[in-house]
């Protein structure tokens, strides 16, 4: 099986007030190359932990996380990460932020500049290339973060509730822009969110998780064509899938006592 | 004091946000307050309300002679030199020590007890000890100033490292940054605002300390001049020294504030 990212029986626990909190209790998931998968679930279901392990920022207690068939052993530029809090370096301009990863990869200056410009154009921030993050709106900051991740040309994009802090309008705009960017430069995307509409609109597959212990509750296929448009967003089929996801997120049967 | 406070406030809180025109008004008010203060002083001196209080004109005349005979310049230079040497040494040692403590938990555990202990002792209280141990030359004065600036600076740079946003470190890490790059490119710039605040506090502490240190066994310096003048009852000389100390302290603080703005203009202010 040629999956890009795979989680195999991943278990992760944290000590919590003397007890053990099971963030993930044996999760298995395969994500195909160039697939756009969203993960949605109640808080405490371990969705962010899942992403963080794919990023290499955390290690599983047992089980394994594979990217391209190789176990993840730490963070690396093959996997771009986009955080909810933008995490732009505030002392660097948009361009310098985008070039940060390229510098680390020792890309020569001219090439670096070209690739940064390309990435900035991809998220329509060219006008603000020399602006400091403090002058940008939340949505623009997140676009800059997306450009920074894209610039190093990762195979995988890991996004942890990236639009969670934005207002509803900016969120919709960024969803469209992300899909547009993704359609131009196809990557494997693992996108964590708590917004059911967002999960359905973006993904070809929605993974619904449950909490205590964190586990996969259901995987729902989204049989809607790309490019996704407003028409799709307002279609009955979209609503049907959205309702299905909603029900499985908000009306999960109580977890088995034995767990 | 009353003159400095409002200026300080407008400088830090309303800069860049208000249009230029309204920025000028506090400056006018500052000047008015200053003139009123000097005027009040002149009236009090002329009426003889405070015994032996020299008049502003007498102090100005004294300042004139102290400038022309070179004593003011040599005293100022002597004090400034002590402050700069002690302060610079303090900052240069404090910043790496603070970084070390913030970055390596082991270094922190080893160093912190000493920092916490010495922090509670005012540097001035160490002057007698410094004189006994190091004699009455330049060394004990500079040592005490060093300690004053070191203490102010080490805590803030340590705090700066501790307070670096974890997601920024993670963001660098996922882009492939090794530890030393994260340190140089993320931790150092992110903690610069803290360090600069520490440097400002340290400079204030150093300046306060030098004057006190000079009260004990010095041959020149602004503090020494005041001490000597008081034994001869030269009130105007004391006033000239006091005003010089105040003005120089203010100028140094403003210079550092300017540097702070230059270096940390990227900060989001809420």
What does this structure look like?
The complex is a heterodimer of chains A (259) and B (270). Chain A is α/β, with parallel strands linked by helices and 259 residues long. Chain A has 2 domains: 1-78 and 156-259, Rossmann fold, CATH 3.40.50.300; 85-153, no CATH class. Helices cover 35% and strands 27% of the residues of chain A. Chain A is built from 8 helices and 10 strands. Chain A has helices at residues 47-55, 94-104, 109-122, 138-151, 168-184, 196-202, 230-233, 236-250; strands at residues 3-16, 19-32, 36-40, 62-67, 70-71, 79-82, 156-160, 188-193, 205-210, 215-221. In chain A, the strands form 2 sheets. A 6-stranded mixed β-sheet of chain A has the order 6-7-8-3-9-10, with helices on both faces. Chain A is globular, with a radius of gyration of 18 Å. Chain B is mostly helical and 270 residues long. Chain B folds into 2 domains: 1-53; 55-263, MetI-like (MetI-like fold, Orthogonal Bundle). Helix content of chain B is 80%, strand content 0%. In chain B, helix 4 runs parallel beside helix 7. Chain B starts with a helix and ends in a 7-residue tail after the last helix. Classes of the chains: A alpha/beta (259), B mainly alpha (270). Chains A and B meet through strand 6 and helix 2 of A and helix 8 and helix 9 of B.
């Amino acid at each position: 099986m040629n999956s890009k990212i795979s989680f195999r029986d991943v278990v992760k626990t944290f000590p919590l007030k003397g007890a053990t909190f099971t963030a993930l209790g044996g999760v298995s998931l395969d994500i195909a190359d160039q697939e756009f998968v969203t993960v949605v679930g109640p808080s405490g279901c371990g969705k962010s932990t899942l992403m963080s392990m794919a990023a290499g920022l955390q290690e599983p207690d047992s089980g394994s996380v594979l990217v391209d068939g190789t176990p993840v052993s730490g963070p690396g530029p093959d996997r771009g990460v986009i955080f909810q809090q933008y995490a732009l370096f505030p002392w660097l301009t948009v361009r310098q932020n985008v070039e940060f990863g390229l510098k680390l990869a020792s890309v020569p200056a001219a090439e670096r500049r070209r690739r940064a410009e390309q990435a900035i154009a991809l998220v329509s921030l060219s006008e603000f290339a020399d602006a400091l993050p403090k002058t940008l709106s939340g949505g623009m900051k997140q676009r800059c973060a997306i450009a920074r991740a894209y610039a190093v040309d990762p195979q995988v994009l890991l996004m942890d509730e990236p639009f969670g802090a934005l207002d509803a309008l900016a969120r919709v705009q960024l969803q469209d822009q992300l899909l547009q960017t993704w359609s131009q430069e196809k990557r494997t995307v693992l996108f964590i969110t708590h917004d059911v509409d967002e999960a359905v609109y973006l993904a070809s597959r929605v993974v619904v998780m449950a909490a205590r212990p964190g586990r996969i509750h259901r995987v729902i296929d989204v049989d809607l064509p790309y490019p996704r448009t407003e028409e799709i967003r307002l279609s009955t089929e979209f609503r049907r899938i959205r309702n299905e996801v909603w029900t499985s997120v908000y009306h999960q049967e109580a977890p088995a006592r034995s767990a | 004091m009353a003159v400095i406070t409002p200026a300080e406030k407008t400088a830090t809180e309303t800069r860049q946000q208000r249009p230029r025109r309204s920025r000028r008004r506090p400056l006018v008010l500052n000047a008015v307050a200053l003139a009123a203060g000097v005027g009040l002083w002149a009236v009090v001196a002329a009426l003889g309300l405070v015994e032996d209080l020299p008049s502003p004109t007498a102090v100005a005349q004294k300042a004139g002679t102290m400038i022309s005979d070179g004593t003011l310049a040599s005293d100022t230079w002597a004090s400034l030199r002590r402050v700069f040497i002690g302060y610079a040494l303090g900052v240069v040692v404090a910043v790496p020590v603070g970084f070390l403590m913030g970055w390596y938990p082991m270094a922190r555990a080893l160093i912190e007890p000493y920092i916490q202990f010495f922090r509670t002792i005012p540097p001035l209280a160490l002057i007698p000890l410094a004189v006994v141990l190091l004699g009455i030359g330049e060394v004990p004065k500079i040592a005490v100033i060093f300690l004053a600036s070191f203490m102010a600076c080490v805590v803030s740079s340590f705090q700066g490292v501790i307070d670096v946003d974890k997601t920024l470190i993670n963001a660098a890490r996922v882009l492939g940054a090794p530890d030393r790059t994260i340190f140089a490119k993320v931790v150092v710039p992110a903690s610069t605002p803290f360090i600069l605040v520490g440097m400002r506090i340290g400079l204030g502490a150093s300046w306060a300390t030098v004057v006190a240190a000079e009260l004990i066994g010095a041959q020149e310096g602004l503090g020494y001049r005041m001490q000597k003048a008081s034994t001869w009852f030269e009130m105007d000389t004391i006033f000239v020294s006091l005003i010089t100390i105040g003005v120089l302290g203010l100028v140094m603080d403003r210079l550092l504030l300017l540097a702070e703005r230059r270096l940390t203009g990227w900060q989001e202010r809420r």
